[in-house]
Predict the 3D structure of the following.
Amino acid sequence: AVLTLQTGDTDIAQDNILGQIDFQAPDEGTGTDAILVAAGISAVSEGDFSSSSNATSLIFKTGKSEAATEKARITSNGTLEVEHSDNTNSVASFINGTSNDDSNGVVHVKQSAACNQPTMVIEQVGTGGNPSDTQGLHIKIGGQNQGTGKALRVTTENSNLNSGTAFDPLTVFNGGNVQISGNLVIGTSGN
C-alpha cells in the first residue's frame, strides 16, 4: 500500500509545505508543553516549482519543552543538515557538500553561536584492543601521499580555506611535513 499526501496548490512557491505529519498527545492530562506537537515530518519546497524543478527538502522536527521545531533536514541534493541547540551549544553538521569553500565540506561541524563547550569532541572509550593498532583520531586522505596537498589544516577564525589568505597555525602536508606558524608552547601557559 502507498500513502500519498498531495497538496491542492497550483502554484508552489519557496517554503510551501507540500505535506506534513505531526505527532501529538492532545489529551495528556498535565497540559501545557505535554499537549503541544512533539514531533513532525514535512516536505517543504526549496523554491518555485517549474517544468524543470520540484526541489524539496524533507524536514524533521522534534520538541523538548516546546512545540516541535526543525532539528534536521534532507535537501533535494541529498545533503543532510542536523541542527542542535541546547543552552550554550549550537551545532550544525553538513554531510556530502559539493562546494569548494570551507562552509560545505564533506563533513562539516559548525558551532554557530556562543558556546562554553568544544565544537567537536572525538573520544575513544572502553578497554582492550591491540595497542599497536591505530586508535583515537585517524585522519586519512586518499590519493597521492606526496606533493604539497594538505592532509590536515588548522585555520584561524574568519578564514576562508580556499582564499589563499588564511592564517594556518598548524598544517600537516601529504608528504609528512608539519608546519607550525607562530610560537610552539609546550606546557600549560601561553597564548
